[in-house]
TrEMBL record:
This is Nucleotidyl transferase domain-containing protein. Residues 2-260 form the Nucleotidyl transferase domain. It comes from the Eukaryota. The lineage of its organism: Eukaryota, Metazoa, Chordata, Tunicata, Ascidiacea. Pfam families: NTP_transferase. InterPro entries: NTP_transferase_dom, Nucleotide-diphossugar_trans. Transmembrane segments: none annotated.
């Protein structure tokens, strides 16, 4: 099994928050990609690398990033020279960014991993420390015995008032996805299952990425950017199941970054 980390974003919201912070304490973070922000004395992605290196199931990690941050990722990755590969998507501004789904397609084709089961990770997210990668992989493999084309995606319970901030999944009694709702109102669904970008996709599911992008080729970037839009396409065509986690941090802005730092400093 291989891993693709999507780290092609430009961190515009975080940069805005830092510039607007009156204390000036976080100015030194402005030059860093979100994926390499210091958390618990090491870069965010180094937390994932610890999990991936400890797993007997992970063969290699592939990172997709942009032209602005490529050199930083290359320097960071030298700690694991035989375990990490980095690709530059050649974009240099937020306006020209590929968007997450196109970035995934670019990474898969660049590295030639279309025939592998792939773990897909958003580079600006971290899970709580009780996350067990081996259990998720085991569940995926058991599901594949009866559903060879299936995928497995993470979910966690969010508060009622936070439903409007997330992609929400509804499932049946077998934890198979039956509906995807993008930032619904709380009264639109009984589900509180938020779905972060940490998926295990089968080769059959990976083929659907290019199909999705072809269908959306004339659509605005907002319809192609979030990976949840791809999930909305995927569950209608192939089986998608959910794996419950206790929670996660989305390091999108300064406040969420500081929450993540506090958690890992205390854990």
């Amino acid at each position: 099994m291989k891993v693709v980390i999507l780290a092609g974003g430009f961190g515009t919201r975080l940069a805005r928050d830092i510039r607007n912070d009156a204390s000036g304490k976080y100015k030194e973070l402005l030059h860093l990609p979100k994926s390499l922000l210091p958390i618990g004395q090491k870069p965010l992605l180094s937390h994932w690398m610890k999990l991936f290196q400890e797993s007997d199931d992970i063969e290699h990690v592939y990172i997709e990033t942009n032209d602005c941050f490529y050199d930083q990722f290359m320097k960071w990755s030298q700690e694991w020279p035989d375990f990490i590969s980095v690709v530059n998507d050649k974009t240099s501004t937020n306006k020209s960014r590929l968007g997450a789904v196109a970035a995934l397609d670019f990474a898969v084709s660049s590295f030639g991993v279309e025939q592998s089961d792939l773990i897909i990770v958003a580079g600006d997210t971290l899970f709580y420390s009780d996350f067990d990668l081996s259990k998720m992989i085991d569940q995926f493999r058991k599901l594949k015995l009866e559903n060879p084309t299936c995928s497995l995606v993470t979910v966690y319970d969010c508060a009622k008032d936070d439903v409007v901030k997330h992609g929400i999944l509804e499932t049946n009694s077998q934890n198979r996805v039956t509906m995807f709702l993008e930032k619904p109102q709380p009264d639109e669904t009984q589900s509180r299952s938020a779905c972060p970008c940490f998926y295990i996709l089968s080769p059959a599911a990976l083929k659907e990425v290019s199909i999705f992008l072809e269908d959306k080729k004339n659509s605005p970037l907002t319809e192609k950017d979030a990976t949840g839009n791809f999930l909305n396409h995927l569950y209608k065509r192939l089986p998608v199941f959910t794996y419950k986690i206790s929670g996660r941090f989305d390091v999108g802005g300064l406040s969420s970054y500081l929450e993540c730092v506090t958690y890992f400093d205390e854990s």
